[in-house]
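User: Can you recover a sequence for this backbone? Please restate the input before giving your answer.

Assistant: Of course. Working from this structure:
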């Protein structure tokens, strides 16, 4: 199982010139953080997709999170908090995502799934 943590935003048009090889997250607005959980095993993918829906219902900040099922698992997305320092918000998202990944790996590594 693997996790991809990323950020996506909408270009706010503040800069006239952009380096095509760099994606400056600070020049974007209406952004969201993404944690994509991927698994190659088809049986585990079905469980992951069901878990993603349950997780979405359990998250405290309703409306700030969304989920997208993928062919390999799911993507959990959360709006970037505009009122919070971007770096601090990113660090919190990365820690949350890594914890989620560790917990899912521990679940699947139990004897039931070996």
């Amino acid at each position: 199982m693997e996790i991809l943590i990323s950020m996506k935003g909408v270009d706010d048009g503040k800069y006239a010139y952009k380096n095509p090889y760099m994606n400056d997250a600070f020049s974007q607005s209406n952004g969201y953080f993404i944690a994509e959980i991927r698994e190659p095993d088809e049986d585990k993918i079905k469980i992951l997709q069901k878990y993603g829906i349950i997780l979405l219902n359990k998250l405290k900040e309703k409306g700030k999170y969304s989920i997208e099922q993928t062919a390999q698992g799911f993507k959990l997305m959360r709006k970037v908090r505009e009122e919070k320092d971007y770096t601090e918000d990113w660090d919190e998202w990365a820690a949350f995502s890594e914890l989620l990944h560790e917990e899912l790996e521990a679940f699947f590594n139990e004897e039931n799934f070996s």
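That completes the design. Confidence is low (pLDDT under 50) at residues 22-27.
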